[in-house]
Amino acid sequence: MPNGFASTLRAWRRRRGLSQMALAARAGISPRHLGFLEVARAAPSRDMVMRLAAALYIPLRQQNTLLLAAGFAPVWRESRFDAPELAPARGAIDYMLAQQEPFPAVAVDRRWNLLQANQGAVRLVEFLVGPLAPGAAVNLADALVGPDVLRPYLVNWDDVVRYFVRTVEADAAMDGTAETAALLDRLLGYRNVRAVLKDPMSDAAGPVLPMHFRKGDVSLQLFTAIATLGTPQDVTLQELRIESFFPIDGATAKTLRAWAA
User: Fold this and answer.
1) Among 13, 185, 199, 219, whose CB has the most other CB atoms within 10 angstroms?
2) What is the pLDDT of residue 80?
3) What is the distance between the alpha carbons of residues 66 and 47, in angstroms, rounded to a whole number?
4) Cα dihedral sign, 7-9-15-17
5) Which class does domain 3-69 fall in?
6) Radius of gyration of the chain (CA)
7) If DSSP codes are grouped into helix, strand and coil, which group holds residue 242?
8) Residues 6 or more apart in contact with residue 240 via CB below 8 angstroms
9) Could you give the CA distance from residue 100 to residue 118 in angstroms, rounded to a whole number?
10) 199-251: per-residue pLDDT in tens?
11) What is the helix (H) or strand (E) element at residue 244, kind and residue range?
12) Partners of 225 in the beta sheet?
């Protein structure tokens, strides 16, 4: 049995904060058998790998990695976002983005790379930073946290970035990938981010934290809701998020509706 499976299994169990006994109970196996698997004294079946992956809530991409480490072929496919087989899911995303008009909405992948945006999002970005080059790759995490894109217009940048970076930290702990860890390192490397994380949050002024943009005489306050697909069987779809922006006050709603008129 490849030692890679044993070490990876141990790492996931520790990442989830579970004892061997707790994981064994959750997976429906004996602690002794789990102990043998973790020190490479026993080889798992394909079913056992999948059972442990489910008990550990391991994302589909990392389930494939665990299967490979145990000597099995991956189970879950990873399709291109524009692949024909994802057409029904893209249709649902199109519908959600259209329903959000005239308010902004975007679809992003696990590392906040922009996949799709509605016209409300395009209008907001063009107002703040000007039109993007056709086909330009956009990472919303970099745009939010970095110094030169949205930061000059985000009044409460400190609070928003403090909350957002903590979210990326949770993502990195959840998926355990080098890519998400690299994104987190990149965000932490931007000016003032580490210092902001050490500061306490401002006193809560409402039930949700808004993103407060201001440019010239225009002030916009938006909060967001994030949706995921409920039963993904494809890595791309599991890692997809739809983020919808809602006005927190009447003045913001009026401005966004006026832009669409």
Assistant:
1) 13
2) 95
3) 12
4) negative
5) mainly alpha
6) 22
7) strand
8) 81, 89, 93, 107, 108, 109, 110, 115, 228, 229, 232
9) 8
10) 877 666 788 999 999 999 999 999 999 999 999 999 999 999 999 999 999 99
11) strand 241-247
12) 244
- Amino acid 246 reads F
CA distance 86 to 66: 25
Domain layout of the chain by residue ranges: 3-69, 84-260
The CATH label, of 3.30.450.180, 3.40.50.2300, 3.40.50.2000, 1.10.10.10, for the domain at 84-260 is 3.30.450.180
| pLDDT (average), residues 170-176 | 87
Distances (CA, A) of 212 to 77, 151, 159, 208, 215: 39, 11, 10, 12, 10
88 neighbors 234 (Cβ within 8 angstroms): no
- Of the two residues 180 and 136, the one the predictor is more confident about is 180
Query: What are the distances in angstroms from CA 135 to CA 75, 86, 114, 131, 229?
Result: 32, 21, 11, 12, 25
Q: Look up residue 67 and give its amino acid.
A: L
Fold matches, 3-69 and 84-260? no
Query: In 3-state terms, the chain is what percent helix, strand and coil (to 5)?
Result: 50, 15, 35
Rounded Cα distance between 248 and 224, Å, is 10
Sign, CA dihedral 75-77-114-122, equals negative
DSSP 122-190: HHHHHHHH-PPPTT---BHHHHHHSTTTTGGGBTTHHHHHHHHHHHHHHHHHHH--HHHHHHHHHHHTS
> Which whole-number Å values give the CA distances from 98 to 93, 112, 117, 244, 251, in the listed order?
8, 20, 9, 11, 22
pLDDT of residue 204: 65
Consecutive H or E run containing 108: strand 105-108
